[in-house]
Amino acid sequence: MGNIRNVGQMSVTVRDLSRAITFYRDVLELEYIWETNGMAFFQCGEVRLMLAVPENSEFEHPSSVVYYKVDDINGAYHDLVSRGVVFKGPPHEIGKLGDHTIIMAFFSDSEGNVVAVQSEIPIK
User: Fold this and answer.
1) CATH number of residue 86's parent domain
2) Domain around 106
3) 64 lies in some domain
4) What residues form DSSP beta bridges with 12?
5) What pLDDT, in 10s, does the model give residues 56-71?
6) pLDDT of 1 above 60
7) Which of 47, 83, 102, 111 is least enclosed, having the fewest CB within 10 Å?
8) What are phi and psi of 36, to 5 degrees?
9) For the chain, how many structural domains are there in total?
10) Which residues are within 8 A (CB) of 97 and not within 5 positions of it... i.e. 6 or more apart?
11) pTM for the complete prediction?
12) Assigned domain for 4 exists
């Protein structure tokens, strides 16, 4: 795949930046980096997440789904529910990938973007 090695940054469209910062910082507990000119940045492992108010209609559209990896999907699910996150359903198996089972649970962020938590559980 050429010189591409990993994802460096992802952008999520938001309408209310302050509300989105509160959600991503206080509910999802991502590491807040800084805010500038209608954008806020968070660190999530090796990926930087940019929340951005669209600068024009070209960028005003729903985002791609961001899948956050967690070690304990059930623990993450219950923790986020306790912080007011409303999931579309409980964690469930999506399928098997090699020697792992993929389990996900989907919810919407404060701006209506669909996001998910996921775990890859080794098959015994």
Assistant:
1) 3.10.180.10
2) 9-122
3) yes
4) 51
5) 777 777 777 898 999 9
6) no
7) 83
8) -160, 135
9) 1
10) 120
11) 0.78
12) no
DSSP string, the chain: -TT--S--EEEEE-S-HHHHHHIIIIIS--EEEEEETTEEEEEETTEEEEEE--SSGGG-SPPPPEEEE-S-HHHHHHHHHHTT--BSSS-EEEEEETTEEEEEEEEE-TTS-EEEEEEEEEP-
Q: Which has more pLDDT, 3 or 107?
A: 107
Share of the chain above pLDDT 90, in %: 69
Instruction: Count Cβ atoms below 10 Å from residue 42 Cβ, excluding itself.
Output: 20
Residue at 100 is within a domain: yes
Q: What is the CB neighbour count within 10 angstroms for residue 77?
A: 20
Residue-level pLDDT at 20: 96
Report if residue 92 sits inside a domain: yes
Characterize the bridge pairing of strands 100-108 and 9-13: unpaired
Average pLDDT on 74-81 reads: 95
Residue 20, exposed/middle/buried by CB under 10 A (0-12, 13-18, 19+)? buried
